[in-house]
Amino acid sequence: MSQFIESIKVEDQEIFLLELHQKRVNQTFSNFGKEDSIDLSKIYKNLQHDEDGLFKLRVSYDLDKRIRTQMIPYAIPEIHDFQLVENNSFDYSFKFEDRKELDKMKMKSKAEEIIIVKNNHITDTSFSNLLFLKGKEWFTPTTYLLNGVQRQQLLKQKKIKEAEITLQNIKQFSHFQLINALNDFDDMFIYPIDRIINLPGNEEYLDL
């Protein structure tokens, strides 16, 4: 049975973007022919979490509604370098718990984190969506692997725009940042584009 996960931000006992997380869970059940879903709000309330600070609520579940929960203290990571990794066949359209393929790509790379390139287009890192800065505007690739909840929220709020970002035009952007349910648009570390060690013109890509 396929296992799926949701990683949800909980800060000072407040849960964030719950509606978008619930929508994604519902879509996962529906896509695999199941009418009923799990109730994330009820799962959180039953935990009776009463600690302040930043936590990741990790909910693992399967289509038979078996769930496991973990409440993990969280700190936003600073990453020293990134590498573009080519993989034209990788599919992560649902938030699967199995990350073997992602781990394999990371192990073969020479950097701390990877940016996955699919059919010449920039997609995501191994754990986040991406934003790229041009002038004063932030853009997110139209070619994401997973349409993350933070990405959806920022587009809805019109704080970011979508753009086709490819190996050919990536150097037109000056900086980038990582976003996911735990990493907010405002709080994130912002990296200069040359933090990517194999930008076009630097060296060959890692082709997996």
TrEMBL record:
InterPro entries for the chain: Aminotrans_IV, Aminotransferase-like, BCAT-like_C, BCAT-like_N
Pfam families noted in UniProt: Aminotran_4
Sorted UniProt keywords: Lyase
GO molecular function: lyase activity
UniProt-recorded name of the protein: Aminodeoxychorismate lyase
Organism annotation: Chryseobacterium oncorhynchi
Upper lineage: Bacteria, Pseudomonadati, Bacteroidota, Flavobacteriia, Flavobacteriales
